[in-house]
Design a protein that fits this description.
The chain has helices at 26-41, 53-59, 68-80, 87-90, 94-102, 109-116, 123-144, 183-193, 216-225, 237-246, 268-275; strands spanning 11-13, 20-21, 161-162, 175-178, 203-204, 231-234, 250-254, 264-265. It is of the alpha/beta class.
Length: 279
């Protein structure tokens, strides 16, 4: 380990984009949910693909959209507010979406959508749909002990891949996970990583309290682990903002940042190797 890193006493990881490659799951969940809502919930015409990876990456530059399901809800609500049955005409382009977000200050996406877009549709329905698309019929029944209501297809979680091949016990510092996933979704990620044996109290999920960009998860995990100066690995603006609000430790950006940063790595394996945290 580099001498400059000796002062840090825990490693806390985001999950998606850091421990797990979810580029073929959550963005596609959003796309399918938007199309499904446009056709089946609103009775409109699908005449374009609508949601793209550009929309996704633009969303991740804003602290209010750590929760992928709320990206789907916000965009379908904006489209519904435009008074046309054509998805092509109603759906904001990536540049339009960027401009909309530039005028959104704060991190309360729920209040913002309801206050600004008259076509806002019930958030709970969109979130239910997204969850069913992510899990798929069989896995949804397995984790919820009930059948899905809206979507009967194969779960998109099956498209995910691990981004590291090391076990959490092989790191030189205590490990925690601060994720925007629900606990049930997190279990699938742990299974994929082979980390099912990590203690539940080392993980902070969407179900456990204030989501990012709140630093609550970092505070809770630091206390549980006994860390005073943790390193947090993340890949979004909300991750970076949560680390900033914590006011201690260090943030390591994984992936290609949307802004100039002094410290970032192209992937988590490279970061861990170069920083010397794998035993």
């Amino acid at each position: 380990m580099r001498k400059s890193e000796q002062k840090y006493d825990a490693l806390i990881f985001d999950m998606d984009g850091v421990l797990i490659d979810s580029t073929l799951s959550y963005p596609m969940v959003i796309r399918i949910a938007i199309q499904w809502c446009w056709r089946h919930l609103l009775g409109n015409i699908i005449d374009c693909t609508a949601f793209s990876y550009d929309h996704f990456y633009i969303s991740k530059t804003h602290p209010a959209f750590n929760d992928d399901y709320d990206i789907a809800w916000a965009l379908i609500s904006i489209a519904a507010s435009r008074g046309t049955k054509s998805l092509k005409e109603a759906f904001p382009t990536p540049d339009q979406w960027r401009a909309i977000l530039q005028n959104f200050r704060g991190d309360d996406s729920v209040s913002w959508v309801y206050a600004n877009f008259s076509g806002a549709i019930p958030r709970n329905i969109v979130r239910q749909l997204c969850e069913e698309i992510y899990f798929g019929k069989d896995e949804y029944f397995s984790v919820n002990d009930k059948a899905p209501i809206l979507y009967k297809g194969r779960g998109l979680w099956r498209r995910e891949k691990p981004l590291i091949d090391a076990h959490w016990k092989n790191f030189s510092l205590p490990v925690g996970i601060f994720t925007g996933r629900s606990w049930k979704e997190c279990l699938l990620g742990l299974k994929l990583l082979g980390w099912e044996d990590i203690s539940r109290d080392r993980i902070f999920t969407l179900d456990d309290g204030a989501p990012k960009p709140s630093p609550e998860g970092l505070k809770v995990l630091s206390t549980r682990i006994g860390a005073q100066n943790p390193i947090f690995f993340g890949d979004t603006h909300s991750d970076m903002e949560a680390a900033k609000r914590l006011g201690k430790g260090k943030f390591i950006y994984v992936g290609k940042p949307a802004e100039n940063l002094d410290t970032y790595f192209r992937d988590t394996k490279t970061a861990l190797r170069e920083l010397g945290f794998i035993v």
